[in-house]
Amino acid sequence: MITINATVFVKESAVQEYLKLAKQLIDGTRTEGGNLRYDMYQSVEQAGTFMFVEQYVDQAGLDAHHEAVHFTTFLKDVDPLLNGEMDVKVFRELPKDA
């Protein structure tokens, strides 16, 4: 299993527009066969800071997500709304006996 924590920094003046784009991304991603979880959270301290928690069955599932139209469209459309680069961390599940 692959887990991703992605933090997105949005201009506070663009939060409502961002939320519309993010909803389309979330709805599309949740229909992907290799996706297990796709949730977004908003910081209680900074209204423009969001975190995605994503889980995929395997690398192929993640690769399919990266090629999906809803993902590539989101990246293109969200860029002008950002207040800094996204911070993306990718993790792999360890074996149960590790």
From TrEMBL:
- Top-level division of the source organism's lineage: Bacteria
ABM domain location is 2-91
GO terms of molecular function: catalytic activity
Pfam families from the UniProt entry: ABM
Question: Which InterPro entries has this protein been placed in?
Answer: ABM_dom (IPR007138), AI-2_Isomerase_LsrG (IPR050744), Dimeric_a/b-barrel (IPR011008)
Check the record and name the SUPFAM superfamilies matching this protein.
Dimeric alpha+beta barrel
| TM spans (from-to) | none
Name assigned to this protein = ABM domain-containing protein
Organism for this UniProt entry: Furfurilactobacillus siliginis
